[in-house]
Amino acid sequence: MTDIKIGALCWNQYSDFKSLFDAGLRAERLGYDTLWTWDHVYPIVGDSNGPNYEGWLTITAWATATERIRVGLMVGANTFRAPTLTAKMATTLDHISSGRAILGIGGAWFEEEHEAFGLDFGSGFPERLRWLGEALPLMRGMLDGTEPSAAGDHYRAKNVRNLPAPVQAHLPICIGGGGEQVTLKLVAKYGDMNNIGGTPDEMAHKEEVLLRHCETVGRDPATIERTTGIGTVFIRDDPKEAQRLFEAAFARNRVARLWADQPVGTVEQVVEKLAPKVRLGYRHLIAGVPADYDEESMTRFATEVKPLLEQL
């Protein structure tokens, strides 16, 4: 039997906060392993001119009201904060949650919110990835208590202390993205978890690239937990009803074009769609949960889909 972890990525856009908060508590009750939201200040799916809640405060609220589920951002925007501050915030979250924090981080991509909020977006993705490459050793050093210093092109730090230390002996860093030249190399060097998406064929290719980077840097790939965003899950016995609910959720988020190839349908159809990813070794499956956070779909993913995938 295969161990499967499931995560709930509750969209922090186009919702009221109580509904978003309650969805996180539901994930805990249903036995989800991890609970996430986005690190964005504008909606990123559909119309960006709409309601959106800040990510760190959202996961902190969840941390105070849960006891077991692990919490993190999928994933944090490195451009939003100095890496030293990010590591301090993750450490504080670890204490608030009694050792359940995950530091999710990525290079960031949404130019509109950066421009609106006056956040430095850099000259392009290559520069932002260089910034991420500078940030990761600082964050890892602070989490490990090594009092790191940095004098890079973008970040400075001098023997920065991080007291108290995290509750966890090794607070995990989850790096989001599948860039083959840089991001997956950073995963091999610094990541405790990765997060990619795509079709099974695309994921298989990314996995091969990650294994090559691990070999190059001398990293045991078994020490990196593979996670994948599986899209939005809607489950009903009638696949037409599942599709209707999927379309209604996207309409609430003012989405002009529906996402394709989503795990929408019966339990059996969802299992069939996810099975190839599980067989690749991606056994931490993170389901997107848009408002209004459909309770039946969340429940059946945990209680029906997960057990069937574990039997593969």
Compact overview of the structure:
It is built from 10 helices and 13 strands. With 312 residues, it is α/β, with parallel strands linked by helices. β9 (193-196), α7 and β10 form a beta-alpha-beta unit.
What does this structure look like?
The chain is an alpha/beta fold and 312 residues long. It has a single domain, classed as TIM Barrel (Alpha-Beta Barrel), CATH 3.20.20.30. The chain has an eight-stranded parallel barrel with strand order 1-2-3-5-8-9-10-13, surrounded by seven helices. The radius of gyration is 19 Å and the shape is globular. The termini are close together.
CATH architecture: Alpha-Beta Barrel
**Unreliable sequence segments:** none
Please report the first level of CATH classification, the CATH class: Alpha Beta
**Count of domain modules:** 1
Radius of gyration from the alpha-carbon trace, in angstroms:
19 Å
Amino-to-carboxy terminus distance: 7 Å
Strands, count = 13
The percent of residues in helical segments reads: 40-55%
Summarize model confidence as the mean pLDDT: 97
| Fold-level CATH name | TIM Barrel
* Annotated CATH homologous superfamily: Luciferase-like domain
Strand content: 15-25%
In the sheet with the most strands, the strands line up as 1-2-3-5-8-9-10-13
| Sequence of secondary-structure elements | EHEHEEHEHHEEEHEHEEHEHEH
Shape: globular
